[in-house]
Amino acid sequence: MTEFKADRLLLFGATGDLSRRKLLPSLCALDADGLLPEDLAIIGTARSEMTDSEFRNMARAALEEFLPAERRGSMAQFLNRLTYQDLDASTLEGFDALAERVEEAGSSEDGGLAIFLSTAPSLFEPTIKGLQKAGLTGEKVRMCLEKPLGTDLESSAEINDAVAAAFPEKRIFRIDHYLGKETVQNLLALRFANILFEPIWNSNVIEHVQITVAETVGLEGRVAFYDDAGALRDMVQNHMLQLLALVAMEPPTSFGATAVRDEKVKVLRALRPAEASETVTGQYRAGAIGGQAVPGYDEELGKDSDTETFTAIKAHVDNWRWKGVPFYLRTGKRLPERVTEILVQFRCVPHSIFEGMGAGLKPNKLLIGIQPEEDITLSLMAKVPGLDEDGVRLREVPLKIAMPDAFAEAERRIAYERLLLDLIKGDQTLFVRRDEVEAQWQWIDSIRAEWDKHGVTPKTYTAGSWGPTAAIALTERDGVSWHE
Ligand code: BG6
Known about the structure:
Elements: E1 5-12, H1 17-32, E2 41-46, H2 52-66, H3 75-79, E3 82-86, H4 95-104, E4 111-117, H5 124-133, E5 141-145, H6 153-164, E6 172-174, H7 182-192, E7 206-214, H8 223-248, H9 257-269, E8 279-285, E9 287-289, E10 292-294, H10 297-301, E11 310-316, E12 326-332, E13 339-346, E14 365-371, E15 375-383, E16 394-402, H11 403-406, H12 415-425, H13 434-453, E17 459-462, H14 469-476
Parallel strand pairs: 1-2, 1-4, 2-3, 4-5, 5-6, 7-12, 8-17
Antiparallel strand pairs: 7-13, 8-11, 9-10, 11-12, 13-14, 14-15, 15-16
Helix pairs in contact: 1-2, 1-12, 6-13, 8-9, 8-13, 9-13
The chain binds 6-O-phosphono-beta-D-glucopyranose (BG6).
6-O-phosphono-beta-D-glucopyranose is lined by residues 215, 234.
């Protein structure tokens, strides 16, 4: 943890989508709960010319649209924290004026500056240069970066080098917003705050793991970005690999930034380069979701494209703990429901005393709901009540914890609330370290290279289905069904 608390937050891309949908609402919600430093000044910057009051009006409209009324508190108090300075970040010229604005916002003796870059990655390098020139990269400045951090290992390394030229790693905060989700952090509690799971959390007892991140949305107006990225880069490279790392990592020695990230990176480095035959890609065609007709990807895009909107991968973590345990990953747009979940499938008991009775014995499984349901369900076998004249009958019964019921009084927060607060405080535990990002890209690049080598193009699937049939075949040939 770096020592200073930020009392100024400089937001690049302040008029953009992320800022309006997530960052401003998160900051306002924190303010409403009295969690922001009292004197925190927020300086927005973007290309458009705007006065402070125009920026505040834009922010007010965003809050009214994206933050529930009961979480807004006194919006006026929050809006008063905001000022705005326009800037063309691709040239050095405007940075002195920006630095003046930051200066004017004032700072206490022990306060510092947190900079949040939510702009196109092509602007990262010029922005860092501009900040350097204007003296905004000193010891009491933290740099926070939003994805996408590159499109492959090489471009990601370039971005990381550019940032590293101005900031040491301990002042760089790379966002993966999944780490800000309460249920994702709860994975650590489930695994490491309970004695039950750790002794059986390995290939002796676990048969396979499934991670699904399904979305019902399509392109959402992000045409150019998404068509260049595709599901593998957009979802697997970051969010899904972080989930996998949290499931597969060794117990860290503490809940500290170095300890947690050291263990995650070991898992990411142990990922075996996937073979094309262990991957499936798909692209949606017109269909219906929840009774609503939706257009196909090519129609939304307005042209043909080979970008995958779905991918399923059989991944392997080549280490002692996970030898022979497949991790099936699956993500896609325009699937039947929005659900993120992790299924841990255990092995059968080594010897069944109910053999030959047709008892219906099944292996246990643990289902961890990340969103929208926040449930943890352990399926156990139980005896069906009765006199057993035809032998014992067994049935799966769920041992279920519904987190919202267990913690009814707790506020449900936007993932960015936690991350912004940690950025202000300087706690890196829930931010991604450079070596993690690079290990993630290395694995993703290996898959893309396989796709290129084998000329893989996405198979079609109907919007509202669970992806191409090949995704079902990917698991069925191992005798495994996707959890639905
Ligand atoms: C983003 C992706 O990182 O995550 C989007 O770029 C995706 O394509 C989003 O929709 C999903 O986030 P969440 O929090 O809605 O699951």
